[in-house]
Fold each of these.
Amino acid sequence: MQIDFLFNDGKRKALTFSYDDGVVEDRQLIDVFNRYSMKCTFHLNSGLCERERRIDQCDIADLYTGHEVACHSKTHPHLKNMSDIEVVQQILDNRRDLEKIVGYPVTGMSYPYGTYNSAVIDVLKKLGIAYSRTAMSTNKFITPNDFYQWHPTCHHNNAMDLTDNFLESSKNFELFYIWGHSYEFDRKDNWEDLEELCAKLSSKEDIWYATNIEIYEYLQAVKNLRFSVDRKIINNPSACSVWMLIDGEVVELMAGQTMNF
């Protein structure tokens, strides 16, 4: 029996974005994303919201509706240079602040300046952080082996170079992860590049448009599937459906369901 995994709703591919720092240019970014039905994760520093050109705390809940709000530390330090207790304070304060604003558990993160080490990762695991994105591009459409070192496909400056390959690929279970900072579009005066990118990637029947946490939760559900020795009995203990291509047929294994093949 040939089994290939698919993304939510039987989609062969997935696309996700993430943007850091919570700057005022996010307003224009979100306008573009919403018009093209893209999904994005926004990593915010709750301790810097009062600074000039940052999104004010009172605007966060409404502005980022429909997307994911995630951690980026409270004040954007190099976490690898801090003691464990300082890292704890930076992350817990950031989580607590953001959760009060958005009204849901905030368990995603990206590393400030893209810097981290094993000690930082150990702390994150104990603080309820589910994943953290790095700034190291793979230039590949792969799912992460380690969610605490979730390397994106590329920065948005290089996304168009990879888009045709992603759209034309016939492989299943490919993930295109694009990241950046919205202020970079202002600095380069190239918002039209984002429009072009989103227009090219939008409205594709074989792509699942998802936030980082949605990708994480789905991949965890795939990982948690239980197989019999001969792989002909599959149980899904998770709270969401998992989609597979079994001998060429699209199959939905619903939450809590066991199927025999």
Amino acid sequence: MTHDIGLMEKTEMYLKAMVVIQQSVPPVTTSKVADFLKISVPAASDMIKRLMQKGLVLTEADGGIGVTAEGLQIALRVIRRLRVAERFLADVLGLSLEKVYEEACKFEHILSGEVEERLVQFLKDPMSCPHGHPIPCVNGRLPFEYPATTLAELKEGENATVFSVPEEDADLLVYLTELGLLPHVNLQVKRIAPYQGPIFLLIGDTQQAVGRDVAARIYVTPT
């Protein structure tokens, strides 16, 4: 029985990783899954093959990796538990943003349906996690879609509001918190340095600089 529980959790972890990657930094590749889960590429490749045999994962026409309808429903249930737990840890327990993901991951496989829904009621049915990502509804649908624009795609002079930041990268979250570059924050692109240089932003009364690789992982809503 213990082995079965361990395999179920592992399956959920992989499917969650693939759906999160598809939503935030597509396309899904074996190396991205390995990086997300902090494991080796061969180990990720082996598990992905197993999930394909189970009918939970498939190869996309462009050569990338996708999840089947069954795999998606499993992933969204896990993501719902994860992000509800994140909301509780941040809003009620006051855990700092860079810590909530890792702690919430300990809850995502063990919360019962009853406890999950009690938390949802207590939190007044939140639609997003502290990082700005949507919390799937109980029926498996997302309450809203990601915007199509990242910070890296804005032009000089454009204004925007931060929609979401990566939830799993604690070091990056510490850095973004120091910059004040967090969900719901308004900003303006002041200057884009040439030759792939940094992007200079005005956040409140403060000018900050952010690299383009980081900017590409931050979704924004142009205003």
Amino acid sequence: MKYPNLLERFLIYVKENTRSDEKSTTTPSTQNQVAFAQNILLPEMKRIGLQDVHYLPNGFAVGTLPANDPSLTRKIGFIAHMDTADFNAEGVSPQIIENYDGQPIALGSSGFELHPKDFPQLNHYHGQTLITTDGTTLLGSDDKSGIAEIMTAIEYLVAHPELKHCEIRVGFGPDEEIGVGADKFDVEDFDVDFAYTMDGGPLGELQYETFSAAAAKIDFIGRNVHPGSAKNQMINAFQLAIDFHNALPETDRPEKTDGYQGFFHLMDMAGSVDQAYSSYIIRDFEEADFQARKQLMLDIAAKMNQEFDTPRIIVNLHDQYYNMKKIIEKDMTPITIAKSVMENLGITPIIEPVRGGTDGSKISFMGIPTPNIFAGGENMHGRFEFVSLETMESAVDVILGIVSHP
């Protein structure tokens, strides 16, 4: 095993429930994340040799490894998030599948399995060591793989001073999965030339384009009367929600889009005949298309409201983050370095847009260009999540290559 502590470290991390909570008003959104940072990450950061280790009010655990070669003058950051997505994260019990043989993998006794016919990417991992769930929880590779890889790289550099490197800053933050983790990121405290989020998926991912993102909450105001005498009197709020949804382009949904295609994603719907609401996320890559999607929602509401004497469809829009390409393409140095390092390691860079976002989306606009590098996770956010140990090892290799790049 190339990095003996990598797997052990990862298994310790994923067994800690750090699920975030979008309904919370605190930062971090859950106390579990605070405990994970203060009780596990901070002591380990100090133990492996990071300096100036501290925990910030924004929920980030931060530390520095000074340069050991004065000719390497860059300051480079590596960032990963502590929280996991909105799926059961209590009692994570990972399975280790050594020398994967290409057959279906039973996920504990849950009755679920990872089957190559459903998940053909499994065919890329023959002969490798896979870590899976037991079918009752997510795994948490998103993004505890990234944390484990960054920690392991630092540990390796401290143990091998012959490997020359620039100054390195690491940051482990909260609440990425609910889209607010980087809102209070302290750029001045982090103080680097550029950074990378270790938060990507399969081997070779190198990403500097993300969606621009907005959230929409639509309130539908109905009027409830007895259904037996409802003609020309009842206004069913649920029906308004259905009509609104049906007015959106049928093909512009996550399950029908890929590549650079944007979408509207219905996330939640609830209420009664009297009052209902729907929540959506809106995603697109190009600024004009992003703005057009938001305007379409407003236009649909305006058209529907013309039928009533008072507005009954109320749209509230909130921008979440923007495509970081606009920032990073001004200076492609972070991409050029990472691409060169991967190629030198025999890894084919996969430079494709992120159909999502990372903390780097916000941090880039705050002043630190922060593209995204693979961390290894597949099928993230659910019971079918898995990660390859060999891919995680390759991520450590890439970190080491970046910080020693002339």
Amino acid sequence: MHVTGTVPPPAPAADPAGASADTPAGEPGGSASKHARRFGLPVATALVMGNIIGGGIFLLPASVAPYGTVSLVALGVLTVGAIALALVFGRLAERDPRTGGPYVYAREAFGDFAGFLAAWAYWITTWVSNAALAVAAVGYLDVLIPVSHHRWTACLAALVIQWLPALANFAGTRWVGAVQLVSTVLKFLPLLLVAVGGLFFFDPAKLGSFNAGGGSAIGAVSASAALLLYSYLGVESAAVSAGEVRDARRNVGRATVIGTVGAALVYLLGTVSVFGTVSHSHLVKSTAPFSDAVNAMFGGTWGGWAVALAALVSMTGCLNGWTLLSAQTPYAAARDGLFPAAFTRRRRGVPTVGVGVTVVLSSLLTVYNFMAGSAHVFEVLVLVTTFTATVPYLLATAAQLYHLASGRREAVDKRRLIRDAVIASVAAGFSIWLVAGAGYAAVYQGVLFLFVGILVYAVMAGRRRRAEA
């Protein structure tokens, strides 16, 4: 199918390592460093799965338990939307397999301003989310090693948890891929133990009622979906790092779909197993549902330790992947003059300036959170990221709809066109649902973040115009 965009792809910029910006390390013309290596399908899939599944899975069953098993219906509906979004990213990456993902797609279809908004919103999402993950990880670390008795000890632990994955990124894509693959395997072992093993201990009497919250079933689905909407953030991971993926036109789409479906299976099976092994009355009050499930299945109290360790591994792997993504989008935008030029600097396949700036910003936010002595301000900022993440999703989905609408009719396979249009429409609905689920306050404050970005865009666009004059 032939499609066109309003802005032609830019010429590759020179990479400090001696390669073009579009030539990933490890390929002819790329960096010869042994620390830079392109991601194959397994690592790209692990990047998607590892970034989707962070620490939230370990609290997910308890979060939706008050609504009853109707929440499984909401999770199923959301899974369909997430897979549709994954398919859209796969089709877009097939068209344009450059690093940057939603930024690249939005800019090619709608111009510099839309591309910048996608990059800016995604960048905000990544570094605020990294701080949130690190702070949440301290809670699990406290089960193994008491660190929360003093807030500055907890703060130091949160900073260490952020900087270790950053160091892996500084070491190069080879280390990023290795950490991501190992952490994904390690965290899935205990999750699969509960998800699959729990089915053998399943007791229907423990499920509770279908609509435990009362009221209409549709209202219960919507209410539980609001808690589940953000479980699939990270579906774009392989697309954002497409420039580092081997045979990206083929593998980005495959990794995105396989990773999303794999995460969905873990979510669904894990939630069902916990529902069927922990009584509903206990589950609604549980602070460690997977620990309770393990204890119910095998007896003893060792489940808390096992799940805490799995959660730490999960969050560390998630931070490893998100740290890379936080640098890739500014890198792509900087190549086009829409972010400061320093963000184009790469070493061993990794945009090191982007990694450094991101980890510093997330560290400052973490320190501020502990200085405030309250999680309230921090929770508000995290809620904002749930809105900012939808901006690049919507723009990427709109880009796919644009390409479908602007393609030459004589070159279009009608059945494929209809299929892609339906998938893109479902993905657009999923993205809009994400915006609605973020809430009025988050949307209001998220728009303020975007307005700040408009000022940054004005400066960068002006400097770019002056350089071209």
